[in-house]
């Protein structure tokens, strides 16, 4: 089949592209390359069609989407700290841009699998968190993702098949440096023989899921008969940031010690997915443990 991936030159989108190519699908990537990089696609770029395009430009997307069998919508601005400073820009790309994709999916009757985020939940009093739990995002980025979910419901009610995947902390090779997650930052520090800098006391926990497992969840969602759902995509295993830093130091074999710095604004304390619904509806579960996923950085 032939699929469109918006944000396909980015970290997660490029892994989805690779997974689809490996499954013998055709892929068209739509990306404005504001954050995406061609290097993310190296080794299989000749098997992919590229369209340098902005998701805010609805008309330019029409032909590509009408020619496809479905859309994996990943394009977004993704930095929590930056979203406090550039609220309007984040709203435009993440909400107006996403509505463009939903509008075209409606016009051309295509299924959409798109990137939501665990940030829609905000600080939670209960873990692991199920999909029906209260949504109280604590930063402008999370608010854009919750606005997208409201739009997804609206467009589903108009007949569009939409699955929103609430990714927890996705890690893997290809994550961009400026806006990278904690694992890439620790790896870069350890690689330079520097101590990993943990923000706060390091007791806050995250649910780390490998980008390869996330790519699989995307295709399973597209293939599933489910026409509307939001699904947690995590492992259901909590790891504190201190544990993560120590695990990475151990894997590196270097004599480093963790250092601490101030906790930034808008960081949630605990984040842990209940993954029952993804198992039930799309038959997905993670395959790669955190330790095995981290080994790819060091060996
Ligand atoms: N990485 C994570 O842990 C995580 C967690 C939850 C949700 N998400 C979501 O997953 C998706 C992918 O995230 P990522 O980590 O791969 O980020 P990324 O920045 O690596 O990829 C996003 C891609 O979108 C492109 N893009 C941005 N604005 C665009 C526009 N206006 N038009 C066309 N392309 C545009 C960028 O150039 C980039 O290639 C995002 O929607 C993000 O919000 C990521």
Q: What structural keywords apply?
A:
299 residues; alpha/beta; globular; 10 helices; two-stranded parallel sheet; seven-stranded parallel sheet; Epimerase_deHydtase; NAD-dependent epimerase; Rossmann fold; binds nicotinamide-adenine-dinucleotide; single chain; NAD(P)-bd_dom_sf
Description:
With 299 residues, the chain is α/β, with parallel strands linked by helices. It has a domain at 2-171 and 208-235 and 274-282: 3-Layer(aba) Sandwich (Rossmann fold). It contains ten helices and 13 strands. A seven-stranded parallel β-sheet has the order 3-2-1-4-5-6-11, sandwiched between helices. Helix 1 links the parallel strand 1 and strand 2 (26-31). Helix 6 runs parallel beside helix 8 (241-252) and helix 8 crosses helix 10 (290-298). The longest helix has 22 residues, at 87-108. The radius of gyration is 18 Å and the shape is globular. It starts with a strand and ends with a helix. The chain binds nicotinamide-adenine-dinucleotide (NAD).
Give a brief rundown of this model.
This protein is of the alpha/beta class. The protein has helices at 11-22, 58-66, 80-85, 87-108, 140-157, 182-191, 211-223, 241-252, 276-282, 290-298; strands spanning 2-6, 26-31, 48-52, 70-73, 112-117, 162-167, 169-171, 197-199, 205-206, 208-210, 228-233, 239-240, 259-261. The strands form 4 sheets. It has a 7-stranded parallel β-sheet, with helices on both faces. A two-stranded parallel ribbon has the order 7-10.
Mean pLDDT: 95
**CATH 2nd-level architecture of the domain at 2-171 and 208-235 and 274-282:** 3-Layer(aba) Sandwich
In DSSP terms, counting alpha (H) and pi (I) runs of 4 or more, how many helices?
10
Q: What percent of residues are in strands?
A: 15-25%
CATH class of the domain at 2-171 and 208-235 and 274-282: Alpha Beta
What distance separates the N and C termini? 35 Å
Order of helices and strands, N to C?
EHEEHEHHEHEEHEEEHEEHEHH
Shape: globular
Please tally the β strands and state the result: 13
Instruction: Identify the strand order in the major beta sheet.
Output: 3-2-1-4-5-6-11
């Amino acid at each position: 089949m032939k699929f469109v991936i918006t944000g396909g030159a980015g970290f997660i989108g490029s892994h989805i592209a690779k997974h689809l190519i490996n499954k013998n699908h055709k892929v068209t990537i739509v990306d404005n390359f504001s954050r995406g990089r061609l290097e993310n696609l190296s080794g299989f770029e000749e098997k992919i069609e590229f369209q340098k395009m902005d998701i805010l430009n609805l008309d330019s997307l029409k032909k590509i989407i009408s020619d496809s069998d479905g859309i994996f919508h990943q394009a977004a601005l993704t930095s929590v700290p930056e979203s406090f400073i550039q609220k309007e820009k984040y709203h435009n790309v993440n909400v107006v841009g996403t509505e463009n994709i939903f509008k075209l999916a409606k016009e051309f009757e295509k299924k959409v699998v798109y990137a939501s985020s665990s940030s829609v939940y905000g600080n939670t009093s209960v873990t692991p968190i199920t999909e029906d739990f209260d949504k109280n995002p604590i930063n402008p980025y999370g608010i854009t993702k919750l606005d997208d979910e409201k739009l997804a419901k609206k467009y589903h009610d108009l007949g569009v098949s939409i699955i929103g995947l609430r990714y927890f902390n996705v890690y893997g090779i290809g994550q961009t440096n400026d806006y990278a997650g904690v694992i890439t930052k620790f790896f870069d520090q350890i690689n330079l023989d520097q101590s990993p800098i943990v923000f706060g006391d390091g007791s806050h926990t995250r649910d780390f899921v490998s980008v390869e497992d996330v790519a699989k969840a995307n295709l399973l969602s597209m293939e599933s008969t489910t026409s509307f759902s939001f699904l947690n995509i995590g492992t259901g295993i909590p790891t504190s940031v201190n544990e993560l830093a120590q695990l990475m130091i151990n894997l590196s074999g270097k004599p480093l010690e963790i250092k601490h710095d101030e906790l930034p604004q808008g960081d949630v304390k605990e984040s842990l997915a209940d993954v029952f619904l993804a198992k039930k509806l799309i038959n997905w579960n993670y395959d790669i443990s955190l330790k095995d996923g981290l080994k790819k950085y060091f060996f």
